[in-house]
Amino acid sequence: MTRALLRAEAVTREFTSRAGTVRALGATDLAVRPGELVVLRGPSGSGKSTLLSLLAGLDRPTSGRIHLDDERIDDAPESRLVEYRRDHLGIVFQSFGLLPVLTATENVEVPLRIAGVPPAERTDRVAEALDLVGLAQHGGQLPEELSGGQQQRVGIARALVSRPRILLADEPTAQLDSANAAAIMDLLASLVASQGVAAVVSTHDDSMSDRATHVITLG
Predict the structure, then answer these.
(1) How open is the CA angle 109-114-120, to the nearest 5 degrees?
(2) How many domains is the chain partitioned into structurally?
(3) Which value, to the nearest 10 degrees, does the dihedral of the CA atoms of residues 209, 160, 10, 170 take?
């Protein structure tokens, strides 16, 4: 069996305030390999978003370890975490996270501009990413001119344009109707399989579990 690309070992997250200590995430294990789709399930407050933040290096666990291949990420310096997110991760947000003044093409292009990819290569890769999500003919439109489902497809294209090894998606269908939600879930599953990405997706939607390689229930 292929070795896990991303692993979490007994990770927890606690927050301390005047009111005491709050455990946002109980001890959790996770392993995801290239081409696998791991779904995180559980009620609101069970720690799904917290776990994704830890996996993205946006927060650090109170205890436990997170590995990319054989490298520990949980205790890496911030400069290394910036490289980790830039070079290995694609992130899909439930709120779409598109810049309203930029077209679909320009939104997808943002990570490549940040990475300093040459203009000609940017053009080719953005066109490829939009084609992958079925929006090849919509690159010139602003977010307000697109449906919710199309906006989320732009967000997925933006996450994939850097050709990440790992895709993290936090409730990517939460703001969509049932038909668009099903289409986005099918798209994510097919892209993981065809692109060989290791994906972790949090969701309240039970039907997403049918598309998963593994399901982890929190809370």
Answers:
(1) 50
(2) 1
(3) -60
Q: What is the pLDDT of residues 15-47, one digit of tens each?
A: 988 888 999 999 999 999 999 999 999 888 899
The whole-model pTM stands at 0.91
DSSP state of 94: T
Retrieve residue 131's tokens.
């084609």
Given pLDDT bands bounded at 50, 70 and 90, which one contains residue 77?
very high
Instruction: Provide the CA 87 distance to its chain's centre, in angstroms.
Output: 14
Are 130 and 122 in contact by the 8 Å Cβ rule? The answer is no
Distance of CA 204 to the CA centre of its chain: 16
Task: Indicate the Cα dihedral angle 56, 58, 63, 66, nearest 10°.
Answer: 20
Q: Are 167 and 159 in contact (CB under 8 A)?
A: yes
Q: What pLDDT digit, counting tens, does each position of 150-196 carry?
A: 999 999 999 999 999 999 999 988 888 888 888 888 888 898 989 89
Query: Partners of 217 in the beta sheet?
Result: 41
1 assigned to some structural domain:
no
Return the structure tokens found at 129: 């990413």
CATH code for the domain of 192: 3.40.50.300
User: For the chain, what is the largest distance between any 2 Cα atoms, rounded to a whole number of angstroms?
Assistant: 55
